[in-house]
Amino acid sequence: MIDPVRPITLSDIEEARERIAGTVLRTPLVKLDAGGGREIYLKLENLQPTNAYKIRGGANAVAKLSDQDRARGVWTISAGNAGQGVAYAAREFGVPCSVVAIETAPQTKLDRMRALGATIVPVSYEDAWVAAETHAFEGMEGTFVHPFDNHDFIAGHGTMGLEIVEDLPEVRTVIAAIGGGGLITGVGSAVKALRPDAKIIGAEPETASPYAYSLSHGGPQRFPGWQASFVDGAGGKSVTERMWQRMQAVVDGTVTVTLDQTGDAMRLMAEKARVIAEGAGALALAAALSDQTLEGPIVCVVSGGNIDLGKFAEMVTP
Q1: Is the pTM of this model over 0.90?
Q2: DSSP classification of residue 223
Q3: Which of 110, 144, 178 is the last residue of a domain?
Q4: Does some domain include residue 109?
Q5: Phi and psi at residue 129, to the nearest 5°
Q6: Same domain as 49, residue 59
Q7: Burial readout 291-308 (b: 16 or more C-beta within 10 A, e: otherwise)
Q8: How high is the pLDDT of residue 80?
Q9: Phi, psi (5° rounding) for residue 175?
């Protein structure tokens, strides 16, 4: 049975921080010289042990399971980063992990999940998204840890919001990529609890922007004309009803960016800050640069850096 949606409270997030402190890094917040006089900071989640923010949610969700549920082993659905986060946490507890993995995920993500001990079950993006929407996949055994629609997973992500406000109390805008919606819900829940006047803004690629499409239609929708791209860690096929409820409570809007703008943001971070960001990790900066109305100081969540190095070199080479 799926638990009902409920608010992610500040106490949920503070308890998560204590629970995952030995596993997750407190990542730095660094100022980016982006030009134009704007005050933009990068929250470098690409520096986590799995090179992506999902370890926050994975570590908290697996730690919150009962001993009995954890002993059955865990499984999740992933394009790569959630799988690594859950696999990393499962390894810490010495329990098996399986990942229903999108078969077109970058090889580096697939390799890292296997290196962490995960059993990979490759499926199409469509089948993976159906499994995420239905919370089920035939043949999988163990305890399911949803990669975004999971209260404890989201609370783990919220620990990032605590760090942002502590390091930059005057923050006015926080931008995070939207895939399933767990990242922005967690970060937004923490930031809004501490700084209610700060704006929480999503970022999506034009090829897969279901939240923007849902906002324009007044409710959760499937995105027509969805296309796969190098922004594989964000841009889902739809917004589920449950995630719509969660995001509506804490998200102030979203910015849709082009793939070219996303690539430019990857290049700018490499040039100015020597940061390796995957496509999804560059969405927030692309949004900040494309929307000049956003008020600073702005924090852009660099959600991950798991990209094949050959692809990265190709993307950032003029």
Answers
A1: yes
A2: P
A3: 144
A4: yes
A5: -70, -35
A6: no
A7: beebeebbbbbbbbbbbe
A8: 78
A9: -115, 135
